[in-house]
Amino acid sequence: MDKLINQFEFGLFFWQVIIFVGLILLLKKFAWKPILDAVNEREQGIKDALLSAENARKEMENLQADNQRILNEARAERDAMLKEAREMKEKMIADSKNEAQAQGQKMIVQAKAAIESEKNAAMAELKSQVSTLSLSIAEKLLKEELSNKESQTKLVEKMLGDVKLN
Amino acid sequence: MVISNKPLRFILVALVACLPVMAFANSEKDAAHTQTEVAHEGASEGHHAAEPTDVKSKIKAFIGHHVLDSHDFTLTQDDETGKYYGFPLPVIIWDNGLQIFSSSKFNHGHAIAESNGNYYVINHHDGKIYKTDAEGTITEDEKTGHPTNVRPLDFSITKTVISIFTAALLMFWLFSSLAKSYAKNGGIASGIGRIFEPLVVYIRDEVAIPNIGEKHYKKYMSYLLTIFFFILFLNIFGLTPLGINATGNLTITFSLAILTFLITNLTANKNYWGHIFWMPGVPKPMRIILAPIELLGVFIKPFSLMIRLYANIFAGHIVLMSIIGLMFIFKSWIGSSLSFGLSFVLSILEILVAFLQAYIFTMLSALYFGSAVEEHHHEEEGHH
Asked: Is the N or the C terminus of chain A less surrounded, counting Cβ atoms within 10 Å?
């Protein structure tokens, strides 16, 4: 211990402290601060670059997913539209078919009604004609037969027979 | 996960940290052997022989001088011609006014230096400057053998001061060029400084943030980074053949530890002092017993920092140099090449220790800072 204490040299201690503290201060200003700043900056730069690359990758993935989704949506929409169009076409055909049928039916009914009314009119006409005719016949006959009683009767019978047949 | 991971890593680190100490303990036996032999052989020459003559005591003296600070920068020396290869360093002494002269005046401890009518001499044993008279008289304490002469305040630019100054310049150049290269090169490091960028990031991510916390770590980063690289560079300097031993010098580790101590206690919050003087969650009588223990811990923590770094590097240098010295003692093909291999392996281990001790010092400093700024949640702690 005595030997150790004897080794202590104040002059050397003085120089060492001056040189060492001076070295710390000088290096702090001219070396450590710029070095650590540069290293930190570089590390931050690398970190940022990695982060932005990762972000870009994610964005790309999102974009691709979006594209896929949009494509799928478009495909589905197209399918839906096609299906709708087909359905519409079928419906239209069916509708027009039904309408045509209904129209035809209606026309047939109308025609039947017209025929019926025409027939009735014709019948009425015929009846009035027949009555007029029979009246005129009767008049003629009466005129004629009134002169000949026998032939008159015969004629009436004959005519009546004809009428009945009709 | 962080909590369970930390102690495991710490134990591992502590184990590896102990390795050189174990190596030291083992080889100390050999060193002790050598020492006793030297003592036997050198008994006739007397204890205070200024110039050791045989190889073993020469090596011992060389190692002894290497681990101490020195007033000149000697790279190598030629014993036969007495020539030293290196350069002298300025001596600055405060002794009734500033005395500045070159250390070449001491002629490597062989001469008495004179400055403005004052005489100084370098003591051979501790390498320190003592005041003396024109004849160079040194009076020694009978018991300890230490000189009792007056020691003037020594502000000399010694070898260690040159080393730390060089390390500081190198660090400043490296890291300011690294800082500039970011601006020039668009946020990417270039040049030689980029080698150290992973270490800077490691200190931030593995030392500062886990120990101090995301919220407070920024204000300690400058200190932690500076102390890590300062210790690391000086440790590596110590492994070069220049013969520098800065982090194995108690004064240096003391100044580093005291800075950690000051920063810890000056930036500490209320919780930290609360835990020291009035420990929450324990019975009141226990709090009174715990307070002095905790207060002692405040001083023991930086003290252990100081001793750990000093002892590791000091021991490493002694072991490595002893094994290198063995080469010259064996002077045989087998023995010398064996100790060469051993010193090679040890050198590699010392490189590991250089990094490890810098890491441990930094990590423990961060741990102490973390405890100083930690915000405790007693309600949660009760559930653990």
From this structure: N
Query: Which of B165, B182, B254 lies closest to A38 in CB terms?
Result: B182
Partner-chain contact B175 A41, CB within 8 Å: no
Whether B51 is covered by a domain: the verdict is no
> Considering CB atoms only, which of A27, A33, A42 is closest to B187?
A42
Query: Does B255 share its domain with B348?
Result: yes
Residue B50 within a domain: no
The reply to whether B284 and B375 lie within a common domain is yes
Please, which pLDDT band fits residue B4 given cuts at 50, 70 and 90?
low
Q: Give the nearest chain A residue to B224 (CA atoms).
A: A24
The residue of chain A with its CA nearest to that of B168 is A23
Question: How far does the CA of residue A59 sit from the closest CA of chain B (Å)?
Answer: 29
Which among A12, A26, A41 has the least Cβ separation from residue B161? A12
% of chain A with per-residue pLDDT over 70: 95
Strand, coil or helix: B266: helix
* Interval B174-193: pLDDT, tens: 998 888 888 888 778 888 88
Q: Are residues B175 and B232 in the same domain?
A: yes
Dump pLDDT digits (tens) for A70-105.
Answer: 999 999 999 999 999 999 999 999 999 999 999 999
Q: B3 CA to chain A: closest CA distance, Å?
A: 25
Contact A38 B183 (CB under 8 A): yes
Predicted confidence at residue B11, as pLDDT, reads 59
- Examine the pLDDT at A112 and tell me if it is beyond 70: yes
Residue B226 lies in a domain: yes
Residue B230 backbone dihedrals phi, psi, to 5 degrees: -65, -50
What is d(CA B111, CA B238) in angstroms, rounded to the nearest whole number? 29
Instruction: Tell whether B252 and B153 lie within a shared domain.
Output: no
Contact present, A109 and A116 (Cβ < 8 Å): no
Half-sphere exposure (CA, 13 Å, Cβ side) for A8? 10
User: What residues 24-63 of chain A have any CB closer than 8 A to a CB of chain B?
Assistant: 24, 26-28, 30-36, 38-39, 41-42, 45
Mean pLDDT for the stretch of residues B248-252: 90
Q: Is A1 on the interface with B (CB under 8 A)?
A: no
Q: Which domain holds residue B88?
A: 80-157
Q: What is the pLDDT of residues B45-93, one digit of tens each?
A: 333 444 556 788 888 888 888 788 888 888 777 777 777 888 888 888 8
- Distance (Å, whole) CA B331 – CA B334: 9
Q: Pick from B92, B146, B171: which is nearest to A23 by CB?
A: B171
CA distance B338 to chain A (A): 33
Alpha carbons B203 and B231: distance in angstroms, whole number = 14
Does one domain contain both B129 and B258? Answer: no
* Pair B123, B109 in one domain: yes
For the ranges A156-160, B219-223, B244-248, the lowest mean pLDDT is seen at A156-160
Asked if residue B305 and residue B339 are part of one domain, the reply reads: yes
Q: For A27-50, how does the pLDDT look when each residue is reduced to its tens digit (9 = 90+)?
A: 999 999 989 998 898 899 999 999
Q: Tell me the C-alpha distance between A117 and A136, whole Å.
A: 28
